[in-house]
């Protein structure tokens, strides 16, 4: 009896410890030592979190960095300049929840910038609930994907002019939990609002990012503009707390999740930006345009992302949702 009880306790502890060690040992790291003097990068959501650290890392390599965010980024700009000694940092205020604001940003960039070498579609959010934008789109889906889809189209000319250039969509392995179809690409209001719907919307938006990178790689073949989607890893951000609050007993759930899952297994933020840096900095990744990267390696995407007919339908529907003009279609 005592032996059985001991094994019941001992085995889960051993498994937990092994998984914890494995998670830490398999963290990808970017080893590309490239200086980016003369290059320009635009990062959405660069005012905080992974976006800020990505901006900091690129500025530290001499890159001209444009931080586009809904919040005032002047303090962020000063912080990056002080830490890197690179004064070539620009801030742009825009709001992904407004397609008009996205268009205004693109117009500004196309007018003021001579080149754009890296477009990093980083901004993201989760746990929104039943909230829709002035464009009639679910806010979570618009921030995570629709806005970036439009921005990419509007900047494609500048990216081509600056080639070789790269487009990076920050995605997630949570894309594997999607329930994406044409009918819920813009999640219906009568189905939104629950914690499970929030998770589905987040997963769907991340799948769309993977699809977009893959489709862009085909459409831009021969232009020297390449596209990628990346999973930053299980990184601690405030998205977790936002999701937890949507559940009953959310505070208790979050504290338990934080204690037993987040703290032992989550990457630190610096580890979380390594894969994005890898696809931006490493030249050899151009041979893997359109691919999904996890821990600085090509990873198998969700099955639906590899279905060309499904991808085409989603792409065409997205063009309509963001109201692309005929001359803006890639």
Can you describe this structure?
By secondary structure, the protein is an alpha/beta fold. It has one domain: NAD(P)-binding Rossmann-like Domain (Rossmann fold, 3-Layer(aba) Sandwich). Helix content is 47%, strand content 12%. The protein is globular and about 50 Å long. The model is unreliable at 10-25 (pLDDT under 50). InterPro entries: NAD(P)-bd_dom_sf (IPR036291), SDR_fam (IPR002347). Keywords: Oxidoreductase. GO terms for molecular function: oxidoreductase activity.
List the helices and strands and how they pair.
Elements: H1 2-25, E1 40-44, H2 49-59, E2 64-69, H3 74-84, E3 89-93, H4 99-112, E4 118-121, H5 139-161, E5 165-170, H6 195-219, E6 225-231, H7 239-244, H8 250-265, H9 269-272, H10 274-281, E7 292-294, E8 297-299, H11 308-321
Parallel strand pairs: 1-2, 1-4, 2-3, 4-5, 5-6, 6-7
Antiparallel strand pairs: 7-8
Helix pairs in contact: 2-3, 4-5, 5-6, 6-11
Structural class determined from secondary elements: alpha/beta
The number of domains is 1
SSE pattern: HEHEHEHEHEHEHHHHEEH
Number of strands: 8
> Helix fraction?
40-55%
CATH topology term: Rossmann fold
Low-confidence stretches: 10-25
* Shape call: globular
Kindly report the spatial arrangement of strands forming the biggest sheet. 3-2-1-4-5-6-7-8
Distance between the termini: 68 Å
Which structural traits does this protein have?
single chain; 330 residues; alpha/beta; Rossmann fold; eight-stranded mixed β-sheet; oxidoreductase activity; oxidoreductase; SDR_fam; NAD(P)-bd_dom_sf
């Amino acid at each position: 009896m005592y032996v059985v009880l001991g094994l019941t306790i001992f085995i889960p502890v051993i498994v937990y410890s092994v998984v914890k060690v494995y998670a830490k040992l398999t963290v990808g790291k970017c080893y590309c030592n490239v200086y980016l003097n003369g290059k320009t990068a635009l990062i959405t959501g660069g005012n905080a979190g992974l976006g800020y650290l990505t901006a900091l890392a690129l500025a530290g390599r001499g890159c001209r960095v444009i931080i586009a965010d809904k919040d005032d980024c002047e303090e962020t700009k000063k912080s990056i300049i002080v830490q890197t000694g690179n004064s070539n940092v620009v801030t742009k205020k825009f709001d992904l929840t407004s397609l008009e604001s996205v268009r205004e940003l693109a117009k500004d960039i196309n007018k003021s910038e001579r080149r754009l070498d890296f477009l990093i579609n980083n901004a993201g959010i989760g746990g929104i609930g039943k909230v829709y934008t002035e464009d009639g789109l679910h806010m979570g889906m618009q921030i995570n994907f629709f806005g970036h889809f439009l921005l990419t189209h509007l900047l494609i000319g500048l990216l081509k002019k600056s080639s070789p250039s790269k487009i990076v969509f920050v995605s997630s392995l949570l894309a594997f939990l999607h329930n994406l179809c044409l009918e819920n690409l813009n999640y219906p209001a009568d189905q939104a609002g629950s914690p499970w719907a929030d998770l589905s919307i987040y997963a769907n938006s991340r799948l769309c990012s993977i699809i977009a990178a893959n489709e862009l790689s085909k459409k831009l073949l021969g232009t020297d503009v390449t596209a990628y989607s990346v999973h930053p890893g299980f990184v601690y951000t405030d998205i977790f707390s936002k999701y937890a609050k949507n559940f009953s007993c959310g505070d208790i759930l979050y504290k338990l999740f934080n204690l037993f899952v987040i703290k032992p297994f989550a990457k630190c933020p610096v580890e979380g930006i390594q894969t994005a840096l890898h696809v931006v900095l490493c030249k050899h990744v151009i041979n893997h345009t359109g691919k999904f990267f996890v821990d600085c390696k090509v990873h198998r995407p969700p099955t639906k992302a590899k279905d060309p007919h499904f991808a085409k339908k989603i792409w065409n529907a997205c063009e309509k949702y963001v109201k692309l003009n005929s001359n803006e279609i890639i």
